[in-house]
Amino acid sequence: MTTPLSGRGRHRRRIRIVLPVAAAGAAVAVTAALLTASAGAATASASPTVKPSTSSASLTELTDRISGALATDKDFKKASKTKDTKSGGSGTSSTSSTSSGSSSTSTTSPMIIGGTTTSITSAPWMAQLWYYDDKGTSDTGDDVGFFCGGTVVAPTKILTAAHCVKGYDWHASGAILTGTDQLPTTDSSDNTDLHGGTVSGVWRQWNHPSYSATTIDNDIAVLTLPNPISATPIRMATSTDTASYAAGTSAKLYGWGRTSSTSNDISQTLKTATLPIQSDTTCAGYYGSDFVQGHMVCAGQPATGSDSGTTSACNGDSGGPLIVGGRVVGIVSWGVKDCVAEGAYSVFTKVRTYVGAAYPRIDDTNLSGDHKADLFVRNSSTYTGYEKDSTGTSFATRQSWGSFKGYNTILQTDLDRDGYQDFVLRRSSDGAVFWLHYIPATQSWGTKQIFSDWSTRKFTVAPGDVTGDYLPDLLSVDSAGYLWIYPGQGNGSFATRVKVGSGWGQYNSLRGHGDFNGDGKADLIARNKSTGYVYLYRGTGTAGSGAFSTRLHVRTWTSDYNAFDAVGDITGDGKADFLTRTKGGTLYLYKGTGQASSSIFATRISVGTGFQQYDIWG
Question: Which residues pair with 130 in a beta bridge?
Fold first, then answer.
């Protein structure tokens, strides 16, 4: 629920929200509304291109943004949509009052109708998203202030709705509050009480590229914070999860939205409610074509037409989670105006469908901070390491990171999930393995030895989260051809290694970073040294012998290529990509398609020449 919100005066303790209109139910022609409301590893000259720790807002500024949102007292027209649905629900026409994220927005603060009060200890992953832009003028009439809910899905990642994000500059005007079940309040002296919560800025933002403000389709977004927070994350549903969406499944809704259809006040305290999942047939029967099957899920008993007997999400809950079995299965997206129209249901983004697109954003700690995976290479004669930032279709001019002499393996990863890309380095002389990581607090680099005597290891891979706990792992193939998983613990240390299986010595390349088949799980790409066959090993999200599904033959690359790399989503489209180099030094990009078949990659495109000079790829 997009909760552009406004208070009536700076000292109001309750927020009032004007609801943007969303969509109409086909069967009943009602108007729907968005529910927004250290051991010898060289550190070289390594430094990231982007340093959010120095560019993010101060605590005072962030608190002022919250205060401004609380005090916004003009009703703005936020990106809104109305639909007039014909009888039978087959035809619709829509008009949009503004383009999403223009200088418009509304003032609101809603909460769950029919819910009960809960505490942050029962939902530690809940986040409050506050937005305030005074437009740089002294006139409060053009101020933009609103509120949305969100979910912490990694130490620096907030999952929310695209209608809360698209068109708004969250880095310049946003503040994220976690660790409290109370909304902020201001006193007569304009002091803002965060009630024990922790406020953070926003480093960067992503919303699904196909999000439509007209249909509210593909309504999913991820905000990246400049520094990790202590709030306990919760995981998203997997792409293969069907049980959580079965009709009748009990789901939990959380939010600070409106608690009554007759008042725009939102709740000062966190609310929760239990809703049954409804079938697509039921949802489409009420909403007609406004309900996009496969992209949306609806839940709740049919509303009664009044607050009495209705349990529903409402304005202000937008962006918040619907939880089943300890995972986020839905994101509060839209519903009927005032939330209680007879027969209506709450509508959520179906996370299962979008986890493949969202996962790269959760694991996208690239070097430049722009949501496109970048490339690290080392010159074979000078041993100089270089950063080459992705433009989406090529790589920009290289940037020197200094000498990386003395290493024969360099991998790009983020073992502590702090939003900054780290490196795993193996020393040539003795096989010692080090974690080179950026420390935002001191704007410096630290090193930590994580393994010793890996000199005989055939491959080491940093594909991301293999075990399904949202913590990046390491994989390694030993001299006997056994593949091992080293489960990451989020701090550069690892749990006891787990054997996957044997036979991995047949490959001369083993690469992976991210999700190649679109199911939200990290995969591997392996190339057989004798046949040139390229195989996809699909991750299952578990450890041990079942960590990967049976391999799929997806390509045949014989003698054309002599180097391979996987650094993640290079194009920024939410799909993991792959790089190959010819003997002549031409680098090719194979864009990922998300398909687990011979169509796994699109037709290759050249992204540069002269790459024969590099002997190590990140």
Answer: 147, 175
Closest CA to 287 of 348, 221, 210, 354: 348
Q: Beta 198-200 vs 235-236: how paired, if at all?
A: unpaired
CB-side neighbour CA atoms (13 Å) of 548: 28
Residues 606-610: contacts with CB under 8 Å, at least 24 apart: 607/393, 607/394, 607/395, 607/579, 608/394, 608/395, 609/584, 609/585, 610/585
Say which of 104, 318, 368, 390 is annotated catalytic.
Answer: 318
**Alpha-carbon span 468 to 548, nearest angstrom:** 12
Active site residue 219: yes
CA 422 from centre of chain = 19
- Three-class SS string for 440-462? CCCCEEEEEEEECCCCCCCEEEE
| Options 6, 104, 106, 163, the catalytic residue | 163
pLDDT digits 0-9 by tens, 380-401: 999 999 999 999 999 999 999 9
Active site residue: 219, 414, 515, 519, which one?
219
Q: Are 70 and 7 in contact (CB under 8 A)?
A: yes
Q: Report the percentage of the chain scoring pLDDT > 70.
A: 84
Q: Under the phi-then-psi rule, with left for phi > 0, alpha for psi from -120 to 50, and beta for the rest, what region is 2?
A: beta
Please state, as a whole number, how many other Cβ atoms lie within 10 Å of the Cβ of residue 490: 18
Beta strands in 465-560 (DSSP E): 473-477, 483-486, 498-501, 507-511, 524-528, 533-537, 552-556
Q: Answer yes or no: 163 catalytic.
A: yes
pTM attached to this predicted model = 0.80
**Residue 46 pLDDT:** 54
Active site residue 346: no
Which H helix or E strand runs over 287? helix 280-287
How distant is the alpha carbon of residue 554 from its chain centre?
28
Q: What distance in Å separates the CA atoms of residue 463 and residue 578, rounded to the nearest whole number? A: 13
